[in-house]
Request: fold
Amino acid sequence: MAVFSEGTTFRGMADYPGGNDGYVTLTFSVDNTITTPVSTLTPLEIANAISAAAQAKGYPKIVFSGPPAPVQVNP
Reply:
């Protein structure tokens, strides 16, 4: 599993559901510098939660990537 620096920006996109023209692009970043290990949120947790919310509305799974490669967070 890739290790990302605090504040890394992640990006994912998916086509609109139902074959409509267009797509949605989502970005997020996580900064855990003031949290305790118990309350730390990982990029994987955030990516999976956003993707699940989109899937509940009919979107396909949204796979997020982050730099430097880009590396997939939730393949």
Summary: The chain has one domain: 9-72. The mean pLDDT is 86. DSSP finds one helix and four strands in the chain. The two ends are 11 Å apart (CA to CA).
